Amino acid sequence: MQNADQHGYDRTGTQREAELRARVRETNERSRKGRDGAGAGATTSHSPVGCAECTELEAARRSAAAGDDHAKAEDATIAVRSHFRNAHLLPKENPW
Ligand SMILES: [Zn+2]
């Protein structure tokens, strides 16, 4: 019975495909959630999500700003800005 065989094969293939897709979707969702979580933890309006350096510099700037050392806070702000400009703005703003 060729028809029956074919039908059985198709069903197995579709099932396996659906399973694979579900797993891929699950993995994607998990990595997206992880990225969102990191971004929400740093809560910066201008930091591109996924840039570890931005997150790190912004965290340093915040802790410096929370303290009394204004020079340190200023340095940290400059570090954030210069990294941001060099890493994220220059390629777009500079037509070369
Ligand atoms: Zn960055």
Helical run tally: 3
What compounds are bound to the protein? zinc ion
User: What percent of the residues sit in helical stretches (DSSP H or I)?
Assistant: over 70%
Could you say how many structural domains there are in total?
A: 2
Rg of Cα set = 24 Å
For the record, give the distance between the C-alpha atoms at the N and C termini, rounded to a whole number: 68 Å
Structure overview:
- There is one protein chain.
- This protein is mainly alpha-helical and 96 residues long.
- The protein has 2 domains: 43 residues; 52 residues.
- 83% of the residues lie in helices and 0% in strands.
- It has 3 helices and no strands.
- Helix 2 runs antiparallel to helix 3.
- The radius of gyration is 24 Å and the shape is elongated.
- The N and C termini lie far apart (68 Å).
- About 8% of the residues have low confidence.
- Zinc ion (ZN) binds next to helix 2 and helix 3.
Features:
mainly alpha; 96 residues; binds zinc ion; elongated; 2 domains
Quick overview of this protein structure:
By secondary structure, this protein is mostly helical. It contains 3 helices and no strands. The chain has 2 domains: 1-43; 45-96.
